[in-house]
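Box S2. Input/output pair 1.
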Amino acid sequence: MAESPLAEAPEAGSQSQPPLARARRLVVKIGSSLLVDDSGQVRRPWLEALAADLAALRRDGREVVVVSSGAIAVGRRLLGLTRGAPKLEEKQAAAAVGQIRLAHAYEEALAPHGITVAQILLTFADTEERRRHLNARSTLTTLLRHGALPVINENDTVATAEIRYGDNDRLAARVAAMIDADALVLLSDIDGLYTADPRRRPEARHLATVEALTPEIEAMAGAAPTGYSSGGMVTKLAAARIALSAGCSMAIANGRTLHPLAALAAGGKATWFLAQIEPRQARKRWIAGSLMPCGSITVDAGAARALAAGKSLLPAGVTAVAGSFERGDPVRVLDPQGRELARGLSAYSAGDAARIAGHKSRDIETLLGYRGREELIHRDDLVLG
């Protein structure tokens, strides 16, 4: 079993620390070429070294999610689809086979560290449509709370060309935004962003940090050979834009070495895109300013005081429900005089919210016939006015 030299990070909170040292929740994206060799076999020594790095991060109290490519590459070999460019349906079939092998490889690599692996398959709609977004977010945060390590891939077996991300860089960024991650690390076959293609322009400068995605920065991702191409660096900058808007810093780092996360933590060469706000601030800003409320929930004085103290909204404090909304839709929260106190994402539809209004959370299952969330609006999904 590979041992990791990853050192324990300093305590979070100092802005002078590297982003990886400050991150308490991070997403690590694994490129296909790192994990799978040209013959379609999983690179076991590399994966075992990565597993040691992930285990070291976990021992340090970090929460880690992995977004992994490689299922199609592994599945193509197993199905004999090794000649020519595969059709969409062949890619989907290869993904169906490869996902099982890939999940098993992660399970075997992490088992010696006592880490339980969970497989999650997502599509574009799962991260874009609010209700599905909330379902996925809830599943991932529950897994992390119970100590599992989620391994995510795009659900290539059902996603068509029109609804696919097509790359796991942007999927990883969407996942990072979904779970309020502090940092996203894209492990690839390149060590960051250069002012020009270093394979064509030897004088090109490597950028260690990027504080804003200006037009000049985006122009640096122009056409270049495979590995540093518009299909590679352009999607990485698109991922950076998604991550930064969610308050998540992002690194592009070379993953070809063994223990790539340990190397990054030790100051290895990479480009860090630095977020200017915290993830929770970004999420609150999105809820407060980017969504049109679909209805309103009126609360009593006790609930109003609880919200002001930073608590979640429980059904017991609700006196009225108005409008037509579904689970995950934004609503206004009104005080007894009808003044807006807050805005948030409802955990229940308008009909179900009306049924449980004024009741204790323990009565929800009896009233609705299923056991939903205890909160009508969780404090993480609530922004005070």
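Box S3. Input/output pair 2.
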Amino acid sequence: MASGNSSTFSVIGPDITIKGDIGASADLHVDGSIEGDIKCASLVQGESSHVSGGITAETARLAGHVTGSITAKELVILKSAKIEGDVHYDALTIEQGAQVDGRFAPNARRQAKNVTSTPNAKDASGDQAQLHIAT
């Protein structure tokens, strides 16, 4: 990284098991096992990784096993991934072969449920959810 760049990158190796929630303001790469919720800027999950808990990230690239809900603005689910839980996204890409057992909902729909009903409630968000199926 350039010396003026203040971003950091943390790695949880394959031999690490964490029981508890993780909060990171930077990017996080997980190859180990986590029993708890993850909140971070960007998450990359390795194929051998297992997360039992919710994931909240700006961007997430998942290749391992996740048991819990996922909320991300940009989400990529790779073919090696196995997801058991609901998925909330703005932009979603799923590789052929990925396994997902849960419901998909764009973040805009989830946020609309939290807004008090007004005649223009649906127009409050100009964002459009996107779904991409990778082949």
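Caption for Box S3: The longest strand covers residues 87-95. Helices lie at 107-114.
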